[in-house]
Amino acid sequence: MSPVTVEAGSPRHRALRAAALAGAGLVAVGLPFNSNPVVNGELTLVLVYAVAALGLNLLVGYCGQISLGHGAFFAIGAYTAAVLIAKAHVPYLLTVPAAALVTFVLGFAFGVPALRLRGLYLALVTLALSVATPPLIKRFEGLTGGVQGMAVPQPAVPGWLPLDPDQYLYLLVLGVAAALFLLAANLTRGGLGRALVSIRDDERAATTMGVDRAGVKTRVFACSAAYAGAAGALFTFALGFVAPESFTPLLSFSFLAAIVIGGLGTVAGALLGALFIEFVPQYAGSVNQALTGMLYGATLIAVMYLLPGGAAGLLGRVRRRLVEVAEAPPPGGRPTGETAIEAGTVSPSQGGGLPAV
Amino acid sequence: MGRFLQVVVDGIADGSIYGALALALVLIFRSTGIVNFAQGEMAMFSTFIAWGLHDSGRPLWLALLGAFVLSFLGGMAVERVIIRPVEGGRPLTVVIVTLGLFIVVNAAAGWIWGFTNRGFPRIFPSGTVGLGGVAPSIESLGIIAVLLGVVGLLWLLFQRTKLGLAMRAAAQNPGSSRLVGIRVGRLLMLGWGLAALLGALAGVLVAPRLFLDVNLMGGVLIYAFAGAALGGFDSPLGAVVGSWIIGVTETLAGTYVSAIGADLKVLVPLAIIFVVLLVRPSGLFGVPEVTRA
C-alpha cells in the first residue's frame, strides 16, 4: 500500500494533523470514563511523568546535554506545592507555576556553573544532585515532614461537575499537561528549537553562526528544571502525599530511561516513555521482582543499539508508510527551465541552456 | 588525641575501599575514556559470587580467588560485548549504556541470589593492634595494607612491564598503537578485566563491614566517584589519595560535626564532587583537558 503524499504546510496536511490531534485528544479525555479509579490513578501518573520527561527531553534530546539529576527538581517542585497547599493554603492551580518558578531559578543557578562541564562530568555533577536529595529532604524535617513525609489534601471536585475524584484529578492533570506540551511544541518548532538542535549537532558551528551557546544551554537547563518542578507539583496533586523515598536517584534514571526509550528529541517520545516507566515496572514486578530491572536495563541498552529513535522513531516509520509529508516547493515556483519548456516557448532540443558550439 | 587518630585510621581504611573502586573507575577512564556507572554493581555481583562459592562449602581463600578470576573474565566480556559497540560515541550514548548495565546487573544479582541481605565472612581476624596509644582494628590495617599492595602491583605492571607499556600506549593513542602492532582491542578488554578485578576487591573488603545485598555498592560508588573526581579521573595516584581524603573527611565529619549525622554523611563527598568539578575539573593530580575551542 503506497503512502498518501501530502505537501508540508498545505491545507490537507494541516487538516490531517488537526484530525490526529483531535482524535488523540478525544481518546485522552474519554479514557477516565471507561476505567476504574486504580487505572485512572496510574494514567494520571503517566501524565505527570510525561511532563517531567518532556522537560528532560528539551535538555537531553534537543540540546544534547546529560542530566541524571532531574529527580531532584521534581522533588523540589513536589515539596514546594505540598508546603504551599498544606501550610499556606494556596489555591491548587497556582502552585504549579509557583513550583515551576522555584525550580526554574534553582535550575538556572545550578546550570550557570554546571554547564561549563563536558558530558560525563555534567552527568556526575547532576548525579550528585539526585543522590543528595533524599538526605536533604530528611534533614529539613520541620519543613518537609522528614522521613514520614507529608500528607497533602488533594484537589476536591467542584460541586457543579458530575465527576468522581479520580476522574477529576486525571482531567485536571491532563489539562495542565496538555498546556505544557503545547508550550514545549512551540518552543521546539521556533527559533529556540533550531538553536538547540544546532548546539546539539555541532557546538562549534553553532557558535560561529552566532548562537549564544552558554546562554541557550543555561536557559534550556532552567526550562527543563521548571518542567520537572511543575510535574512534581502535579505529582503532589495526584498522590496527596510526599515522602523522601519517592525521590531517589532511581527516579532520575527513570526519567532518562523514559526519554531514551520513548524517543530522544521528540515531544511524543515523552508520553510514550512515561507509559513505559509507569506500567512496565508494575507488570514486570508482579511476575518477578528482578524482572523489572532486567527489562528496564536491557531495553535501555537495546534501544541505544538498535532503535536510537526510540518508540517515537518506530511510530514515525509506521506513519511514513501511511502518509508521506513532502517538502513544499520553494517560493517562486519551479526552476524557469522547466516551465519554459512546458510552456512551449523553448523547445527541448534547445534546452534553454548553453548553445552547442 | 588517641580517638582522633583512631578515627583518621578508620577513615583511611574506608578511603582505601573507595580507592580500590576509584582505581577501577580511573583505569577504565584512562583506557577507554568512559566513566563506568556500572562499576559498583559489577563489584557487588563479584562479591555475591564470592559469597556463593564460600557458602557452597569452599574455603574462603578459594572463594575469593574464584570470584576474582570470574570477575576478571566477566569484565573482559562486558567490554567486548556491550561496551565495544559504543566506544568513541557520544557521551550520552555511553552514559545510557552504562546506566542500563547498572540496572541489569543489579536486577540480575537479585534474580540469582534474591533481595534479602546476608552476612559476609570476615577476611581479617577481628581484634585491635596497640600502636602507641592508638588501637586501630586489624581489619582497618589489613585493608590499608591490601590497597597499598595493589597499588604497588599496578605500578609495577604499568611502569615496568611491556604489557603495561602497551596498555599505556593503547590508552593514549589507539591509532598509532595499532600502527606499531599493538592489539588495542585486546588491551582494552584487559583493562576492563583488571578494573572488574579491582571492583571485586573493593566489594569483598567492604562486605564484612556492611550487609551483603544488592545495594551494597551504591553508596561506595558515590564515594569512589568523589575520590576519583578529587584526585583526577586520569590519575591512579589521584584516585587513591583523593579517596583517602574523602574517607578521612567523611569519617571526621560524621564523628565531630553534630549537624551531620550518619544519615547526612553522604553529603560530604557530594559537596566535594560539586566543588571539585566546578573549580578544578581535572582534580588534584589530573592533567587539564585541552581542547580547541
Features:
heterodimer, A: 357 residues, mainly alpha, ABC transporter involved in vitamin B12 uptake, BtuC, two-stranded parallel sheet, two-stranded antiparallel sheet, 4 strands, 72% helix, B: 293 residues, 71% helix
Secondary structure elements and their pairing?
The complex is a heterodimer of chains A (357) and B (293).
Chain A: E1 4-7, H1 11-30, H2 37-62, H3 70-88, H4 92-114, H5 119-139, H6 141-144, E2 150-151, H7 165-189, H8 191-201, H9 203-208, H10 213-239, E3 241-242, H11 249-262, H12 267-287, H13 289-306, H14 310-322, E4 323-326, H15 336-343
Helix pairs in contact in A: 2-7, 2-10, 2-11, 2-12, 3-4, 3-5, 3-10, 4-10, 7-8, 7-10, 8-10, 11-12, 11-14, 12-13, 12-14
Chain B: H1 2-32, H2 39-55, H3 60-83, H4 91-113, H5 138-160, H6 162-172, H7 174-179, H8 184-206, H9 216-231, H10 236-256, H11 267-279
Helix pairs in contact in B: 1-5, 1-8, 1-9, 1-10, 2-3, 2-4, 2-8, 2-9, 3-8, 5-6, 6-8, 9-10, 9-11
Mean pLDDT of chain A: 82
What would you report as the Rg of chain A, rounded to the nearest angstrom? Answer: 24 Å
Helix % of chain B is over 70%
> What profile does the largest beta sheet of chain B have?
none
